[in-house]
Amino acid sequence: MNCPNCGTFNNEGFKFCIKCGNSLETTTPNVVEPITTEEVLNEQSVEVAPTQSVEATPAPVQQPMNTYQQSVQPQQSFNTSTVSAVPTDNSPLNYLKYVLGLLLKPFETYKSEEGKLSNVKNSLILSGIVAGAMMLINLLTAMISSVFVKTMDYSTFKYKTEFNIEGLKNLDYLELIGKNLLIYICIIAAIAVVYYLASLVAKKSINFMKTLSISASSIIPYVIMGMVVSPILGKIWALLSIVATIVGAVYSIIIFVLLISDNIKFDKKDLSAYFHLACMTILGTAGYYAYMKLFTSGITNQISDYLDMFK
Fold it and tell me: Looking at the whole model, is its pTM more than 0.70?
């Protein structure tokens, strides 16, 4: 066959011209068949059907998502309402700063450290520090009283103070340290136990360690005013000593009631008043009974000692 480009003769079966390299394959022209109206309608129906199905399918898919979100939102709001507002903080507490702040701003100071005071370690250490401080104050008071002895000068009928270092040998240190420390620890723990059990009865449960820290914190003003400041003021005027003791005791009670009421809340104020009345009645009765037992036994031992001197 001849090349359509250059006219060179090529054998049959050649795909390209041996001279110019032109393609020798014949291409058949594309024949466009006429399209009828029915075919056009069928193609439109085929093209429209998927678009309608695509547009219709998102509706049922979105509906379950909306209902799922609506079902999740109430659950999240419920969970957040039941979570404790004050998480436990395991970081150490600056006890000296806390004691000083408690005297000036008791409620604000406690609330700023509430997370730390809910921790078992911090609560026990604070209770031990308060009880140990009370024991040391009693020990120092007893040592000072045994060294500086007041005696009556019958020539002038006036008291005079004598310094006697030998008086330290007559002190019972085991009782002054061990017994007093145990008594003060029991007082702090008893207050916490009574209020904790009463809160369970009233169905207003509170963390026991938080109750223990509140009990120890509220006693601090009385320790400072009644056990430290009061004896010092007593050297100046006895009435000042009494006033300092009363101020310390009342201040401690007010702090305790405020902190407990903030953690054990009642719908009615009358119920809160009855709650504190019941708890303080139990504590007052038990405290009076324990004090009388100790006081009576102490007097009995002293009388026995004096009687033994005449045997």
Answer: no
